[in-house]
Design goal:
The complex is a heterodimer of chains A (about 325) and B (about 900).
Chain A: H1 7-32, E1 52-63, E2 66-77, E3 81-85, H2 92-98, E4 109-117, E5 120-121, H3 129-135, E6 136-139, H4 150-160, H5 168-172, H6 178-191, H7 195-198, H8 211-224, E7 229-233, H9 241-254, E8 259-263, H10 267-273, E9 276-281, E10 285-291, H11 292-297, H12 302-308
Parallel strand pairs in A: 3-8, 3-9, 6-7, 7-8
Antiparallel strand pairs in A: 1-2, 1-4, 4-5, 9-10
Helix pairs in contact in A: 4-8, 6-8, 8-9
Chain B: H1 3-7, H2 18-41, H3 51-77, H4 86-108, H5 113-136, H6 150-172, H7 178-195, H8 199-202, H9 205-219, E1 228-229, E2 238-239, H10 240-263, H11 267-305, E3 310-312, H12 313-331, H13 340-369, E4 373-375, E5 378-383, E6 386-391, E7 394-397, E8 401-403, H14 404-422, H15 433-459, H16 468-497, H17 503-509, H18 511-535, E9 540-541, E10 544-545, H19 546-571, H20 575-606, E11 610-612, E12 615-618, E13 623-624, H21 643-674, H22 679-692, H23 696-710, H24 717-741, H25 745-753, H26 758-786, H27 790-795, H28 808-811, E14 812-814, E15 821-823, H29 833-842, H30 849-881
Parallel strand pairs in B: 3-7, 8-12
Antiparallel strand pairs in B: 1-2, 3-13, 4-7, 5-6, 9-10, 11-12, 14-15
Classes of the chains: A alpha/beta (about 325), B mainly alpha (about 900).
Chain lengths: ~325, ~900
Amino acid sequence: MSDSINTETSTDTQTNGRQTVETASPSTETTAGESEEQVREEWRQYQFDGDTKLSVENLDVWYGDDHALKDVSMEIPENSVTALIGPSGCGKSTYLRCLNRMNDRIKAARIDGSVELEGTEIYDPNANLVELRKRIGMVFQSPNPFPKSIRENISYGPRKHGDINKGLLARLFGRDDTEEEAELVERSLKQAALWDEVSDRLDDNALGLSGGQQQRLCIARCLAVDPEVILMDEPASALDPIATSKIEDLVEELSKDYTVVIVTHNMQQAARISDQTAVFLTGGELVEYDDTDKIFENPESQRVEDYITGKFG
Amino acid sequence: MSDAYATTDRLVSADSNIYDRGLDTAIALSVVGFALGLVTLVNLVPPGASGGTLTTAFGTLLAVVVGAVGMTGLASYTNVVPVTSQRVRGIGLGLVVSTVALTVLAATLPVTMATLLGTVLLVEALAVTVAGVTSRLDLVDTEPNMSAGLLSGVAFGAIGLAMGGAAGGALAGFGSLLWLVGAVAAGVGLFLLAILPREDLGSTLPTAIVVGALGLTIVTGTIGVGWQWNPQTLSGGFTGGAVIPVFLLVGTLLSAWSAAKCRAGFGARGREYGAFLVINLNAFLMVAMMATIVVFVTIKGVGYAFHGLSVGALTALVLLTPALLAAVQFARTPAGANDWNAGARQLFRVLPLAAVGALAATFVSVLVTGSPLRYPYTYTVQVNRQGQALDTAIAVTPDTTVGTLLLIAPALLLAVTFFRSFGSLRKVGTESERTGSVRQAVPTAVLALVVLIGLFLVLGPAPFGLPLGGTLGFAAVVAGTVAAGGLAVSPLVGVLTSDGPTLADSAQREAPLFTLGVFGGLGLLLTALVLQPVAGVNPQVGPVDLVPAVAFAAALASLALATLTTIAKRSSEATITRRLLTEETRLGLVGAAGFTALVGLHVAATGVSFTVLGVSVSNASSLSWPMVMQAYIPLGAEPGGIMPAIIGTVWLVIGATLFAVPLGVGAAVFLTEYAEQGQFTALVEIATNALWSTPSIVFGLFGAAFLIPRLGGDESLLAGMLVLGFMLLPLVLITSRESIKAVPDEYRDASAALGVTRWETIKSVVLPAAMPGVITGVILGVGRIAGETAPLILVLGSTLNATAAVDVIGGFRFVSGPPFIANDALLTASASLPTQVWAVIAAGVSGSPQMGWATAFILLMVVLTFYAVGITARTYFRRKLNYE
């Protein structure tokens, strides 16, 4: 437990948490349609060689009275792809949104636990939210480019952070970064494998792009602020197979330089692109977390095996 | 322009027979009758008009209809706006036929307007009967249902009840119960007649009876112009002047419905077409009612408002160019399949084009007949305590002068528009040996002329004492001009002398010449034009300047080219040829517009007017501004204007908007983005709504009691601005809040995920996306405050007939002490349009009612102008957001 969490909430969490686990377990049973299976601690322990990028300890999330995420602890290795899978409503998107504090934006959400980015607590009351989100970028389920030009979409983040100065004042002070902007736009779009398709219409409105192109633009927009971690919330669920495969190739490419955490409903996709997989099951608990091969070939939990083989979920 | 358009070449296709064409004409006649009913209802032409008045009225109508149909037909023939729907074509033809017939009747027979209107109804009744009977005898191919249906029956029954009652009562008096017998008999009779026979008779015969009866009462004079009926039970009465137009409106609606059903062959399609037509006429009626308010105010006020405005017909025609462009752009829509729906779409797309055509024909008719078109109006002023009538009017005169600016602007607009749709000139044609050498010579010549211009500019027209400017410049201008003229005319000669099998082939073969002729000619002539003043020469052929004469000839040649290629295009079959030739047509039009602009430029530069074929272009335009643009002239013989009031209202609106929009939008941002949604925001919402429904006089009292003592103690423009700003505030707040709420949360999420702060997000993403909604609120609010009178009387003062406008911009001055800037103009009382109307009309203060109406009309125009500005801004932001 981190010291940043105040004691009152913390005690409250513990009592509250247990109660909710007890009341929630019957529902888990009925949804799973299986015998009551006790989640063992060692299923969630994942040993890996590289450095730890994100370290989550005892994370609980409530939406009002709804206990959405129960006591999740997991360590995410650097420069790899971590897939989060599980049935709808199992809390995997909630978990993802906790990693860059996007859940702060939901007023009813209450978060308890610790998330550390390279050893720094992100839920520290003094944490710099701007810096945090610059380091941990996010790509959403449906493509959400701004109703601006492609160029403006890419340079939006850096401009707002003051990394790129443009306009009359910048020109007067001799700090016009138009060239830097052009380089940034080109680099980001090339990284997102979109450059060839849009290089001749950078000033067109981004809403005129196809769905797949819009999603890659969102990835490029996220890359433009130079993050270390990229969170992806089912980035290909609204796309056709061809656009999906492009996004998947892109994710594999990105994992060389970035730590990618991806939520997906598509188990084949998780198997194809991820290095390790965490399985969440109904009720908001992390059931198993291990190498992707291990999860898909020889899972410890019976329920995980049922889920992966399609017996439920 | 799809190929589907181009396949139908003929005006009325072979598959519409005499029956169809007759019915199209009947529908068209109904439309004309409906319009005439409206015209007589608003007394534009009184029902008792006859003789010369009537002939003039129908002559104008004929010009309008022929112009409308002619312009549409021309656009269709040239495939600019292809009209493929047979029904639209048929109705167009029918409009011309019926208007010509009516005009001939009006000119030859000694009839009144009322008689003609009755005749229209009788003809309609006859046409509908014939159509129904023909169909019943199976002479034509129709698909009627078993019956016209219960709904039609009930409708006809109701009409029968009303008419039978009225007729019975009129014949036997309402004292006896005979009117009831008549009502029941007619009602039941029409009901049975509608539902018992097959649909073709059931939906035509009752119509024929009703329409025929209405027509007969008018034609026989039973209800004539002087007819009057004052029922005992009512305090009002009915006059023939009011009843006849109403008969027309009802009768033509009915007959249009019947004829439309017949035209579409009854059955399901017939009902569809009939319902479509009636619904549209209904919608038209509703729009007409709203328009009546505007038209009524216009008719009352336009005479004074534009008093003193006179414009040459030719100038008016030139001014129509932008309207024509807009109408063509609007009408160029894909029409899709050839069903009734496509026809309807075509009809509505073509209407603006028809309107422009109608105006153009009216102006041309002024030029042709030589008699000016006047808006008749008489204004009485008191001179030496004696009433003196000034015959003032808006006049369109047969003047054939066109002002230079008025010529250059539309011509350049036209050229640019065609340029844009024409694209790159490199696309046209291939390099041919004949044009190759000329193609190289033209830039060389232009370059040489430019060098010469530079020489004269640097050294003056007479360097080293040598008269080079005179001789060399003269020779260069003449040579350049003649070469340009030759270039511009050469493609025409080339096409006409070429030995291709068809005109199309020749035109296609000479395609490179077209480009060279137009662009080479334009370039050369333009440099020659610039060279003229630099060298101080002005070569003339006889009394005519050489440069504009050549430009004029080149414009004519380009126009001829465009016409030739249009004809060639239509006679050719291959799609590729057709497409290529379309480019030639546009090129020709670019040339015509460009050369015309050159004529204007030349006259503007030299100041020497240019006349050819009776048309003259001069620096002095043939447009004179209306009196209303001036301030009021006290004790003048000429009625003065209301400019100070216009300026006052404009400043009021600007001030109120500047005050309310930042405040309202800021509050909306706080309430939507920052404040916790709860009791506080709910309270603010209730308060805002309450403020919006607060009576304006309360605002006025508040302003008078609270603001004025704190703002210099006197009625002032600033107080007016603030009070109107208070009134505008709630609406801006409400609409801004709604539109900010409507901005998708995804944008906010995306921005937050990039680490951008909330305020930056609002500034760069949320507000731009909410802009169209915010502007809508401002538009609605400005509409309300611009016409607000009550609070202004209290805080602004009701300065009547102001002789000077407030000078807000010039009123600003810097002062040494705080607040360092002062503006006395803001603290003085001002005139405004609503208070002027109130003072003139309601309070009967000195001034004439005409002036009040004119003020009301101008107020309407000012508000509409604000609307136009707002709507343009909104469209701009929408475009920006929606990648159009």
